[in-house]
Design a protein that fits this description.
- This protein is of the alpha/beta class.
- The chain contains 19 helices and 17 strands.
- Helices cover 41% and strands 18% of the residues.
- A hairpin with a 2-residue loop joins strand 2 and strand 3.
- Bound molecules: zinc ion.
- The site of zinc ion has 5 residues, from loops.
């Protein structure tokens, strides 16, 4: 009885306390009050208050029950939307080295708080990864692959401006082993296999990646087909590259022909040899596209959990012509003058460039396959290939999201490809990619609802990286948190 009384008294006091409207103070915190949160898994929740402390999401509650003292650092989220910080899952710091020093700011201002570098000289990319690690609130998180692991002749050999030295040409399986040992010592987060590898080399890349607990992404080597690459352990495919060659009714003949061309073209430059194979086979493969064969290939990709980074804006660039829009071209002003000028000139030439029948067929294939990949439940990630093809670092990710939605993928699912999915790809879904307590506070406040129109991901008010707030000067004046 005595015990019961104690419990009863305790409950009674708790009841009284909870009846009092209690205004809470969160020291050294930022409180985003009365915002609609959009979690990639749970969808939209209205009237939420989110407390950020020590770089992490400390607490999330309903605005009516989580009452805040006016002494807190409050951002009024009324009428606004909170999404997780975005990822661009396919970038190249090393493609135009002059742009690299500007990329952190360009990514952050576009709401991108994490990137995945898919190929470049390892020491150059590592410089940016290390910079980001030293000051994580000032830069996006950088996950890197190191150089493209290519066979010989290698494609990105530094021979001209469109083939900068992004790859290493490996002539044997032994070369693969020693190169990967070097990369593991430099803390790469994944490996990138490229198109000129032999099947034996490709198998070794996958075997060593597994042994070191990291993933292999890549272009399916021209010496293989998609099914054998998936069976060898490929974890993800960039650009749906060479998928069409495996979805044709004559895919076996095409493979035999490719292997012969590779053997015969041994003394050609890598870029030329690759182009000659693509030219000889792509149109042929698309003409012989076979729905049953495509289903067979996609079923293997699903079964083996081979992620897809379709870089759809890039793959369809001559049909969607994002670069032709004067609004889009304004983003070039963020680049060094000479590059901005060159990009603008090229954009204006290309905007009137007629699309060939072959390219149109390739575009149709890409659009169709992205939809199929999504419907099969094969995981997708949004990536751009910036700064290739006038894809401005930052803004281009929003073009990619729009391109994904235009295939019929719902906006929330498209958001997932740039938030939760890349986090999961790197086994980091317990730390970021969702709006949940204890996650890193990598967040973006939008003025308008991206679920109604995916273009609204561009309507950014505030970007938060591990608790550090970034706003434009105009916005600062409106936010109490920045007033003295
Ligand atoms: Zn790339």
């Amino acid at each position: 009885m005595k015990n019961f009384f104690k419990i009863f008294t305790g409950l009674y006091i708790l009841f009284l306390v909870s009846c009092q409207p209690k205004e809470l103070i969160f020291e050294d915190s930022i409180c985003i009050q009365n915002i609609s949160t959009i979690d990639p898994m749970d969808g939209l929740k209205e009237n939420q208050t989110v407390i950020i402390t020590n770089g992490k999401i400390h607490k999330i509650g309903n605005t009516d029950s989580l009452l805040l003292s006016a002494d807190n650092n409050i951002i009024d989220g009324t009428g606004k939307y909170l999404i997780p910080g975005l990822w661009d899952a396919h970038v190249h710091f090393a493609y135009i080295e002059e742009i690299a020093p500007l990329m952190f700011d360009m990514f952050l201002s576009a709401g991108i708080t994490s990137v995945r570098d898919t190929g470049g000289k390892v020491d150059f990319v590592k410089l940016w990864k290390d910079k980001a690690l030293t000051k994580p609130t000032t830069a996006p998180r950088v996950m890197m692959a190191g150089p493209l692991l290519d066979g010989e002749p290698n494609v990105y050999d530094g021979s001209d401006a469109s083939h900068p030295e992004l790859s290493v040409g490996l002539s044997s399986v032994e070369d693969v082993i020693s190169q990967i040992e070097t990369l593991i010592n430099k803390d790469v987060d994944l490996l990138k296999a490229y198109e000129m590898l032999s099947p034996e080399q490709f198998k070794k890349v996958n075997e060593l990646a597994k042994a070191n607990g990291i993933k292999v992404t890549g272009h399916v080597p021209l010496s293989m087909d998609v099914i054998s690459a998936a069976n060898a352990g490929l974890n993800s495919m960039e650009h749906l590259r060479n998928l069409e060659l495996s979805c044709a009714s004559n895919s076996d003949e095409l493979l035999a022909e490719r292997q012969k061309m590779l053997a015969d073209g041994n003394d050609m430059a890598g870029g030329k040899l690759r182009t000659s194979i693509h030219t000889a086979q792509r149109e042929n493969a698309l003409k012989n596209y076979d729905e049953t064969k495509a289903d067979e290939v996609l079923n293997v990709l699903k079964e083996k959990n081979v992620w897809q980074i379709p870089t759809l804006a890039l793959n369809t660039f001559l049909s969607n012509k994002y670069f032709a829009d004067p609004e889009y071209q304004k983003s070039y002003l963020q680049l060094p003058d000479s590059i901005a000028k060159h990009w603008k000139n090229r954009s204006n030439v290309l905007k009137d460039f007629p699309m060939s029948e072959a390219f149109a067929a390739q575009v149709d294939f890409n659009l169709k396959m992205v939809k199929k990949v999504y419907e099969k439940g094969i995981p997708l990630m949004a990536g751009t290939d910036t700064p290739i093809a006038y894809l401005t670092p930052g803004l281009s990710l929003h073009e990619e999201l729009e391109a994904l939605v235009n295939t019929g993928i719902p906006p929330l699912e498209a958001l997932k490809t740039a938030t939760y999915n890349p986090a999961k790809y790197f086994n980091m879904e317990g730390e970021l990619g969702s709006i949940k307590e204890n996650m890193w506070a990598d967040l973006v406040i939008l003025n308008t609802n991206p679920l109604e129109d995916i273009q609204n991901t561009r309507d950014i008010e505030v970007v938060i990286k591990e608790g550090q707030i970034y706003v434009s000067e105009d916005m600062k004046a409106d936010l109490k948190i920045f007033r003295n």
